[in-house]
Structures are given as C-alpha cells and as structure tokens.
Amino acid sequence: MSQNPPVTKAYHDVGGDDFGPIPTEDGAYQLWERRVDAMMRLLSSPQVGLMRVDELRRGIETLGEDVYNAEPYYGKWARSLAAIMIEKGVVTREDLDAKIEALRVERGLKR
Amino acid sequence: MSVAHFAVGDRVQVRNLEVEEGLAGHMRAPVYCRGFTGEIERFCGIFGNPESLAYGRDGQPAQPLYRVRFRQIELWPDYRGAAADTLEIEVYQHWLKAS
Fold first, then answer.
1. Which of residues 92-111 of A touch B (CB under 8 A)?
2. Contact between residue B17 and residue B34 where contact means Cβ atoms under 8 Å apart
3. Which CATH architecture has domain A31-107?
4. I need a surface site. Which of A21, A79, B75, B99 has the fewest CB within 10 A?
5. Chain B residues closer than 8 Å to A7 by CB
6. B12: how many CB neighbours lie within 10 A of its CB?
7. pLDDT at A6 > cutoff 70
8. Which residues are bridge partners to B96 per DSSP?
C-alpha cells in the first residue's frame, strides 16, 4: 500500500526520520526544566484550566522550524506556554519581554 | 459524540485529511502512516477531538480512538527487520476509513 497522493511532512512530524542510535541513559532534569513542567501542570490543572496539552502541542508546532530544531524539549514547552498565554491575554508580550530583560540585568546575563 | 464504527480486526486505511478536506494546523495522524492500511488492534475509548481542543474549542464531536497495527515492511521501503514486525499507533476515527 503506497501513499497517494503524496503529502508534505511538517518539520515537527519526524516519525521515521533517521536520528541515529537512541540514547538510553537517564539524564538529570535541570531546575528550569522542572519549573516548566510544573507550570504546564499548574496551568492545565482543573482548578486553573488555562491550558490543554493539545494547545501545548499546537504551540510547539508553530514555533517555526529554526526554533523547533534549536530548542531542547522543555525549551519548546516554555516557548509554547508563553505563546498560548499571550494568545489568551493572560500575559502580554511586552510584560513578558520586560520581565525577561529585568531578570537578565539582575543576573548579569547577556542578551 | 461520534459512535465507534470499527471493531477489532477491521482493516482500515489512514486518510489524508489535509489533502482530502483541505485541513491545516494541528493534525494528529503522522504522515508516515497516511494512506497505509492496517488493522484495528483495540478500541481505546472516546475523547475530545484534539484538533479542536488545540485551538481552545470544545473538542466536540468527541472522537473514538483506536490502536491500529501496521506491518513495518509496508510502512518503510528500506525496512531491514523481521517480516513479521509490526508498528502500533493510536489514530482517531475521523482519520480512518474502511479498507
């Protein structure tokens, strides 16, 4: 059974692509990764109800190919969470950018 | 709510709704299985349609979800594993048609 008509694969649709051997060792999560996970759990909890996993996926699928490929797993989550919260008017992009910039200054981080 | 149209053992083909119905956006059937025929391995339950939920809508009509079993050698032209190897993936009913 072949595919007919052929379809264009989106950049996030990577099933079957060759990524080489699968790493099987456990890695330790960093604090920021745990925090991003916690944010998703909080926002998607019944008490808050601001986010669904399907929305998280959509946000990840619309990051653009370069960002998608450059970001690690929880980096994709963080960017998607921010985009969906901006979309829903929970935060504004200006507020988020200002907070990020303030933290950069506070911690002496480069842009 | 959509009722379950398929039973365990039924042969089903994965549709390509992007082409057939011009749908775009959040799609829950990966390209590698579209157009291919497999067999219903189990009925998984009925869930809100993720392609609606992804946009903040209500997910209705809810969609039956099935686990579908394919033969690996049919999915991948350069497959080098055993001929009996299978791949199972969960697919919502609106992506399936009888085959």
1. none
2. no
3. Orthogonal Bundle (1.10)
4. A21
5. 16, 18-19, 31, 34-35
6. 21
7. no
8. B14
| A7–B25 CB contact, under 8 Å | no
Substitution target in B13, B34, B47 with the highest count of A β-carbons within 10 Å is: B34
Delimit the domains of chain A by residue range.
Answer: 31-107
* Gap between the Cα atoms of A62 and A83, Å rounded: 10
Beta-bridge mates of residue A1: none
Tens-digit pLDDT profile for residues A13-62: 999 998 999 889 888 999 999 999 999 999 999 999 999 999 999 999 99
Task: Specify the 3-state DSSP secondary structure of A64.
Answer: coil
- Cβ contact A57–B50 (<8 Å): yes
* pLDDT tens-digit map of B53-90: 999 999 999 999 999 999 999 999 899 999 999 999 99
- The pTM (predicted TM-score) of the whole model is 0.89
